[in-house]
Write a structure and sequence with these properties.
The chain is 48% helix and 13% strand. By secondary structure, the protein is an alpha/beta fold. Helix 3 runs parallel beside helix 5 and helix 5 packs across helix 6. The chain is globular.
Length: 341
Amino acid sequence: MIITKIRQIKVAKFVILQSISSLIIMDFTTKVPIPQSKFPIDYQSKILSFGSCFAENMANKFDYYKFQNSCNPFGILFHPLAIENSITRIINLELFSEKDLFFNNERWHNFELHSDLSNPDKESLLIGINDLLVATNKQIKEATHIIITYGTSWVYRNKQSNKVVANCHKVPQTNFDKELLSVSEIEIAIQNTINLIKKVNPNCNLIFTISPVRHLKDGFVENQNSKANLIVGLNSVFASQKSPISYFPSYEIMMDELRGYRFYAEDLIHPNQVAIDYIWERFVESSVAGGAIITMSEVEAIQRDLSHRPFNPISESYKKFQIQLDTKINNIKSKFPFMNF
């Protein structure tokens, strides 16, 4: 009787352990497959990004890990026409003039630029944005990788000029007509953008992605229509491309792998830091060279040390810590002189 009970207990334990084991290897998410890049980013790469606020999230990561990176010289741009118009002006060196500016709320603005660049002094604004334009023209020609992030298909057309704007600058909405770009309009804008860049930098690797930020001010259904048009437009253009162009599924990762409001910020619109970090990790896995990942770990160790706050700044142990940190920085800068901590 006792032997029988012991056997029953052993069987029960085995079943429980088997159940726990199956839970450990069980997947609780549908992982988006991402092909390995044929042209991965490393620390010799020169990266230039254009697009929505999510492009800035990714650029902040590049900055943290000390890549050669620049993002949104003309500020955040949300839709394909804004990015096409910006790149057209930059590549053709079409300098801004006074006629391109307008005065509103005590500042000078341009409808192609983000409000962050607006200025109360007209001359200072013109000099600043034209210097940026010339510098970015050089960056586009020298870039090894250009990353373009589209946020929305919704655009605002200025009634007076009949031109689609990049930013309304808090001008009354009665001055604009709101439109949804069609798939064909998006295809044309994307293809024009590719052609412009390839004309001056044929070897540049282009990476496109769609922002996971939800544009709910447009409406729930309207936001889905907007993202759908971007997806269809990109897929259509990609089908006809032979040059090094790739798609990174930021939007798809957020919708499928990170499904759930716990991955959104308090506004329930923008990805929170956990989501940004995760999408960045998926990007690194697929688009960054293995050797660069090793260097990233060295940079991260230095960044952690730099953020360290000592209990006693004049102690001998802290002085030794500072000497070791300086040695780490000097060693990595000897290999990558452009790094600045």
